[in-house]
Amino acid sequence: MNILQLNEGFEASEYTYGAHARSYGPRVHQDLRLVYPYTGRADVRIDDIWYHVEAGQMIFLLPGTEEEYLFARDCDSSVGWCAVENPQPRERICEALAEVPAVHTCSERFVELAAMAESLYPTSSAAEREVHFALVQAMFCEFFRIAGYQEVQEPQMHPAVRRAMQVIDKRYADSLELPQIAVEAGVSAQHLVRLFKRDIKASPSSYLWRTRCEHAARMLLNTGFSASEIAYRCGFANPNHFSRMFKEYHDGVPPGAYRRNAWRGESG
């Protein structure tokens, strides 16, 4: 499984946290993320475990974990971060990376890549965005090298599965049905179901609903839209349908509670 080739959203930026505003979180994030102080330092909680991260180090976070940051009291902390946005297939990625240690020392190459990526954020053109994405991918490749992580070689994903995933990822908000997805993937619906279960251990319908729920989760965290508006923006039939499906993919937590839990103490 090539994590970086399977995903399309990459981002990197940098913020400075003053000693007077030394905390961030707790919140649940949905990205595959690296956070690295350039100056200052941070104590970082991932779920129930605290880590100390000095300038020149980085910390690795899997999607779906709760994060909280306490920055230095005696100086400003300039902190960079990069992310694979809403990585898929999420369960397999988390399983593959579960044993990767959290804290590592940044290499000189990683810092150089980060500086170049951050210089292009926010991007002002499609060409700059492509370069930005490529640099963030290179940052994760360098991180995997530092961490000693080697991806297990698996049978190549069937082209029809890749085409179907691209259709879903780009048009999840539309009224997509399995027969339509199969036509665009170039195979029969029954064959597409078999290929999906073989290659990503899930059905096309399950992947579609999971994708919708993940995008909805991001909107709950990052926008002020109501749950009803998010439901329609993400392809759900109505708010009740959204709530039911969201709870199925988020351990029984409804959208409103998910937002409240994620925002709890974020500005503290």
TrEMBL record:
Gene3D superfamilies: Homeodomain-like. This is Transcriptional regulator, AraC family. The lineage of its organism: Bacteria, Pseudomonadati, Verrucomicrobiota, Opitutia, Puniceicoccales. The keyword DNA-binding applies. Keywords: DNA-binding, Transcription, Transcription regulation. InterPro entries: AraC-bd, Homeodomain-like_sf, HTH-like, HTH_AraC. One of its GO terms (molecular function) is DNA-binding transcription factor activity. The keyword Transport does not apply. Residues 162-260 form the HTH araC/xylS-type domain.
